[in-house]
Amino acid sequence: MNPDTTFHTALHGDPIDALPAIRQARELLDQAQHDHIMTLRRHGASWGFIARHLGITRQSARQHYGPWEPPTQT
């Protein structure tokens, strides 16, 4: 199912079809969020900057997303 169909079904579909579409939409959004956060981190964005845009605290952002971050090279 393509993302457009997934989101349309999640928002407007029959409840039986909408439930799995909602799960799939969440997975797509989680992956997109992860990718964007890692891109920002690779370009030097601080956890505070990212947290402000997520509407959470810096500590929460680092705790939740920090484990995804690749180790820094020395």
Highlighted features:
74 residues; 4 helices
User: How many angstroms separate the termini?
Assistant: 42 Å
SSE string: HHHH
In round numbers, the mean pLDDT is 91
Strand content: under 5%
Overall outline: elongated
Structural class: mainly alpha
Q: Major β-sheet, in short?
A: none
Please compute the radius of gyration using only Cα atoms: 16 Å
**Count of helix runs:** 4
Uncertain runs are none
Fraction of residues in H or I helices = over 70%
Describe the overall structure.
- With 74 residues, this protein is an all-alpha fold.
- It has helices at 3-12, 15-42, 47-54, 58-65.
- The chain is built from four helices and no strands.
- α1 crosses α2 and α3 packs across α4 (58-65).
- The mean pLDDT is 91.
Spell out the blueprint of helices and strands.
Blueprint: H1 3-12, H2 15-42, H3 47-54, H4 58-65
Helix pairs in contact: 1-2, 3-4
Short description:
The chain is an all-alpha fold and 74 residues long.
